[in-house]
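RECORD TYPE: protein structure
NAME: TetR/AcrR family transcriptional regulator
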Amino acid sequence: MSIPKDKNAVGRPSTPSHSRERLIDAARNCFVQQEYSKVSIRSIAKEAGVDAGLIRYYFGSKDKLFSAMVIETTQPIFHEFKQLKKAENFDGLTGVMHRYYQVMQKYPDFPLLVFRLASLPENNSEHQIIRNNMFRKIESDISSYISGQDFLRDGINPSLALFSIMSMTVFPFIMPPMIREQHGIGLDEASLEQLFQHNVSLLKHGMMRKPEHD
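PREDICTED:
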């Protein structure tokens, strides 16, 4: 479904932020629906309902538009990552998971796009954008957070703990719809909130050290 067209979008925009936002949304839709190589500047502009010249005006190229789309889609999540440095227990970690669910509830196909591009060869430019703007930051921030805290139960491997947390966070969005339907898992706000509370319970009772006051 295309974004409603902006009839006034010719040449330089009269409402810059609005046109730029439309291009980010349109790029996300196009890259989710088609392979990167098949998405053209013209098709993104058509989806956004703006002049194709605005892509070069705002971003310079398709690659830079793609990078901007990835960064801006995940920005609320990485803002939550910054709070990890202030957290003194595993609430910081569950805060990241909660924000991830909130963001991806709006863009449920985005994790599948990330998974698809992350599976490309390492020398692929789209793979490098995903790796540099997402995975390196995630692994660095969460690894530092987990290793700097003392909330894991004895015998829990921190690296495997990170792998488990990432799996329970991302997998609901990339699993085949048939499996979600079979297990009654939805991607609506209420279903994701229920899943989040379930995951917090699993972490608290299976992976995290029991608080001394309990």
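COMMENT: Residues 89-213 form a domain with the Tetracycline Repressor; domain 2 fold (CATH 1.10.357.10).
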